[in-house]
Design brief:
Strand content: 15-25%
Distance between the termini: 54 Å
Mean pLDDT: 81
Number of helices: 5
Oligomer: single chain
Structural class: alpha+beta
Helix content: 10-25%
Largest sheet: 3 strands, antiparallel
Order of helices and strands: HEHEEHEEHEEHEEE
Length: 179
């Protein structure tokens, strides 16, 4: 009966096919070395023995997604991680919209319709908070014109307002600061 419920709710044939996300944090040494017994941390649960964490990671039947998180040196706090997507979505999109409020293009007060990369994704730009800015549709499409360039002047993580430098195809330069 449980499998029937899962199939009806999710469209998956069996409960084992349903993809779930477990947030397991463990040192890379404990992940790779079976002799290392450093405990992992299961989000919203607590400590998890390293053997059990490795077993979960290697025997899961659903899709496996790995996201690297970076910590400050020797047991420091998590300071970054791999971005999960190419597009700004979810909570990250909400944060950028709350920060920018209106289109960041010069003399434009249109509502934000697109969240765009400051350093283009195709040029190696990451989908992270400091590399995103809100823009209207026209502004996002106009950015693809030859000669148009956007650079970050201040990431906003240093206590200053998030500031970008916009250079138009005519060579004019504007600073756009988040409110």
């Amino acid at each position: 009966m449980a499998d029937t419920l899962v199939e009806r709710l999710t469209g998956q044939a069996t409960a084992a096919d349903v993809n779930t996300e477990l947030q397991i944090v463990m040192p890379v040494d404990a992940l790779l070395d079976t002799g290392n017994t450093a405990a992992a941390e299961l989000e919203c649960y607590g400590p998890l023995p390293a053997d059990l964490a490795r077993d979960i990671l290697t025997t899961s039947k659903g899709r496996l997604w790995w996201r690297r998180l970076y910590a400050a040196s020797v047991g420091g706090p998590i300071v970054g991680g791999d971005p999960p997507h190419r597009h700004f979505d979810g909570f990250l999109k909400k944060l950028i919209k709350l920060r920018d409020r209106r289109c960041r293009d010069p003399y434009c007060d249109a509502p934000i319709r697109h969240i765009d990369h400051i350093q283009r994704f195709s040029d190696g730009g990451l989908t992270i908070y400091p590399n995103g800015h809100g823009t209207c549709e026209r502004g996002n499409y106009a950015r693809e014109m030859p000669g148009c360039n956007i650079d970050a002047a201040s990431s906003g993580l240093d206590g200053q307002h998030h500031t970008i430098k916009i250079t138009t195809p005519t060579g004019h330069t504007y600073l756009s600061r988040a409110p």
